[in-house]
Amino acid sequence: MKTAFITGVSGQDGAYLSKFLLEKGYRVTGLLPRRSTTSLWRLAYLGIEDEIELIDGDLLDLPSLIRTIKQARPDEVYNLAAQSFVGTSWQQPITTAKVTGMGVLHVLEAIRATDPGIKFYQASSSEMFGLVQQPIQSEETPFYPRSPYGVSKLFGHWMTKNYRESHQLYACSGILFNHESPLRGLEFVTRKVTDAVARIAAGQKHELRLGNIDAVRDWGYAGDYVEAIWLMLQQTDPDDYVIATGRSTTVREMCKVAFNHAGLNYEDYVVIDPTLYRPAEVDILLGNPAKAKEKLGWEAKTTLEQLIGMMVEADMKRVGCEVANKCKGSLGS
Ligand code: NDP
Ligand code: GDP
Q: How far is the CA of 12 from the centre of ligand 1 (A)?
């Protein structure tokens, strides 16, 4: 039986990856930073809360990482923990640099100090492409990050490459394009939209305020993407991979799909709020997943319409549940 150690285990990807690995027969352990309220709603949503060994520690605290990795004795470490919201990274650039950037180095050092044979996955991001230097981004596209988040991810990305080349660690970076699910945080635009659609349909809300709806993203389903993450650590040699669908959609078009799913017209509800525009925007992201297809045999399975439909349905259930006052606050809403 293999053991995985996941940082960010309570996040969207941590939850889906845990479920995926448990189904593969892994022992799954995870780093759990102390929070004043429980952060385990995603694991509960997937019904796996009791199947994961959670170990108290924090990405910012190197001794705690060394101790937790020693305790977990993993074959594979997946570093998913981050301050992951681009918008917040302008409000908290130093925290973002510490957690999303330096945090990666802490994990790499903890692995080097405990067992350099441990395989390592780093959650890199398409946000590193930022002001895109090529219309379709692949592993060869130069980076140009546009936010403190993107800059911090780039530090972690290069550190991962550097530890692979300097210390011969089996260390991989997955350059993942946006991926969403019913477990996405409410601050991200897809979930903000699907939650609003559910509330508007229930008569609880009458408008949805958004920023730049002309921005273009390559959106996939998180449940598909965790398989690619795992596959990267099952190869003979470590490498970096772009994980994307290869399809681009505007925020406007995504809104249309979400509102249509509930029989509504987005134009009747969406209000453009200039205060929601970002100081520096990533206008367009579109990934080329050809290498992942060729080397990992991976490709995205879920269409945008299926993904957004699944998210609207889940939010409608949550809102219905809240109205009946049965599950208030327990499902990330
Ligand atoms: P989430 O925001 O859902 O999860 C982030 C996780 O990191 C949470 O479990 C959070 O715990 C944890 N965390 C934050 N700070 C610390 C800390 N100091 N110590 C330990 N854990 C901490 O992100 P996703 O699951 O969506 O993303 C996973 C990773 O993939 C992230 O690194 C993200 O930046 C990256 N990524 C995501 C993409 C996407 O579209 N989803 C695209 C590309 C990259 P808590 O909630 O308790 O703070
Ligand atoms: P990101 O790609 O990691 O920044 O993911 P987000 O879901 O936060 O944002 C995707 C795109 O939607 C960005 O270009 C945002 O500027 C745009 N957007 C427009 N309105 C909003 C909004 O109200 N909230 C968020 N989060 N993004 C918005």
A: 7
Q: Ligand 1, from 7, 9, 10, 13: best to mutate by most atoms within 8 Å of Cβ?
A: 13
pTM: 0.97
Model confidence band, residue 10 (pLDDT cutoffs 50, 70, 90): very high
- CA–CA distance, 146 with 246 (Å, rounded to integer): 21
Q: Where are the domains of the chain?
A: 3-179+219-243, 184-218+248-283+302-323
| Catalytic site residue from 125, 147, 152, 333 | 125
Look up the CATH superfamily of 3-179+219-243.
Answer: NAD(P)-binding Rossmann-like Domain (3.40.50.720)
Per-residue pLDDT tens over the stretch 264-317: 999 999 999 999 999 999 999 999 999 999 999 999 999 999 999 999 999 999
Q: What DSSP line would sit under 244-303, residue for residue? A: --S--EEHHHHHHHHHHHTT--GGGTEEE-GGGS-SS---B--B--HHIIIII-------
pLDDT, tens digit, for every residue of 40-66? 999 999 999 999 999 999 999 999 999
